[in-house]
Design goal:
MacB_PCD; about 400 residues; 14 helices; lipoprotein; two-stranded antiparallel sheet; alpha+beta; ABC3_permease_C; elongated
């Protein structure tokens, strides 16, 4: 094996220019593949972290996954119903104290309750339709990142101000309102109530900043005429990987529809999977092109060293040894390219991580999300060595099959 390696190293060294070109081809393929993988996975992880921070890991709603059976269907073999008059019943999760207590017994995470409804916000003669969320401030801060989005005031002031209101800054700007101003909220039932703005938030999501508001749970229950009723329970887990199992168990226990963050973003997960397939396909394509360069150089060496091959075979070298020589030549180029490419990939990734840019005037300067992982280097280097091995094996078979007598006589 040592002798074959020395022969392979001699061949590679004698064609230094072609070796350097092939090595650079592999190095560029590996380097750009690593940098691209670091950027794409970094952006995906950054987006997922932002998404997971912005939404509950599990949300229990006042809804059923399957429609409630009609009482008449238990008595009659009916296939259709007409003229049904539903009972006057307020939607919502009843007995929230009992429901929350039963969840706290086994859920490893923070739990909060909400009552969400629609209302019209009026100030200085202007009206805006709002989604009003009734919360208990301390609980809400444990399950969402609304506290980090506060620009003026304090979210916890909702706990000390019975009619406090935390409003999106875009909505306040449209109304001309500011911290400390008093506004009027009117529900769909015509109930009106005055609220004092105790905080302004900015999430960077226009729809939220223009049409979302938070108020104390009791005040919202009074406004929407839903005393002691909530319509959502939100959970932030210590381990997000068990969200699906937690949601399934909570749904069985309470009877209400429970949605995990994965189910709520199922389409997004599929999009990420497709993007990863595209990324690794592009990486494979880059390294395949580099493999053709290796194939070209090894084929040239085989052609030029035909007489040397004949002499080796006449000295008793078996065909597998001849193949090993030229496969080693390809692997030497692949290893050198992988090492240089890994260093290049690390350098490119480090440089990309320092680039700053600004999306809007409301967002501070930020950097490209780069994720450094040894897996990227292993995959890129492994694909480079695989392509180098294949590129060396094909001409190696041809070299091993040469007839030494024909070569010496000048038949080839």
């Amino acid at each position: 094996m040592i002798l074959q390696f020395r022969i392979a190293a001699t061949h590679v060294r004698n064609r230094l220019r072609q070796t350097v070109v092939s090595t650079l081809g592999v190095a560029l393929g590996v380097g750009f593949s690593i940098a691209m993988a670091a950027l794409m996975e970094g952006s995906q992880r950054d987006f997922m972290a932002t998404l997971i921070d912005a939404i509950p890991h599990v949300e229990i709603k006042d809804d059923k996954r399957t429609p409630t059976a009609q009482p008449a269907s238990t008595v009659y073999d009916a296939v259709a119903f007409r003229g049904l008059r539903p009972l006057e019943d307020l939607r919502g999760i009843r007995n929230p104290t009992e429901a929350l207590a039963s969840l706290r017994d086994w859920v490893d995470g923070d739990i909060a309750q909400r009552l969400t409804g629609q209302a019209v916000l009026r100030y200085s003669g202007q009206d805006i339709g709002m989604t009003l969320i009734g919360v208990r401030p301390k609980q809400e801060l444990l399950v969402s990142n609304i506290g980090e989005d506060i620009r003026k005031g304090d979210f916890e002031d909702l706990g000390t101000t019975s009619n406090g209101l935390v409003l999106g800054d875009k909505a306040a700007e449209r109304l001309g309102a500011d911290l400390g101003d008093t506004v009027t909220l009117t529900s769909a039932n015509g109930v009106a109530k005055r609220f004092k703005i105790v905080g302004l938030f900015h999430t960077g999501i226009t729809t939220s900043d223009e049409s979302l508001a938070y108020a104390p749970l009791k005040a919202v229950q009074i406004l929407l005429e839903k005393p002691d009723i909530i319509n959502a329970i939100t959970i932030r887990l210590r381990n997000i990987d068990v969200a699906v199992a937690i949601a399934a168990r909570a749904e069985r226990q309470l009877g209400y529809k429970a949605i995990s963050w994965e189910e709520a973003n199922e389409g997004l997960m599929e999009a990420f999977f497709v993007r990863n397939v595209i990324m690794f396909t592009a990486v494979g394509g880059i390294l395949l092109v580099a493999g053709f360069g290796i194939y070209n150089i090894i084929s040239t060496i085989v052609h030029e060293k035909a007489r040397d091959i004949a002499i080796l075979k006449s000295l008793g070298f078996p065909e597998p040894d001849i193949q090993q020589i030229f496969v080693m030549e390809g692997l030497v180029i692949g290893v050198l390219g992988a090492l240089v490419g890994s260093a290049l990939g690390f350098g490119l990734s480090t440089y990309l991580a320092t680039i700053k840019f600004e999306v809007t005037t409301d967002i501070e300067m930020t950097r490209l999300p780069i994720y450094f992982s040894h897996v990227h280097y292993v995959i890129a280097s492994g694909l480079a060595l695989l392509s180098a091995g294949i590129a060396g094996f094909v001409p190696a078979r041809k070299a091993a099959a040469l007839n030494p007598v024909d070569i010496i006589r000048g038949a080839t």
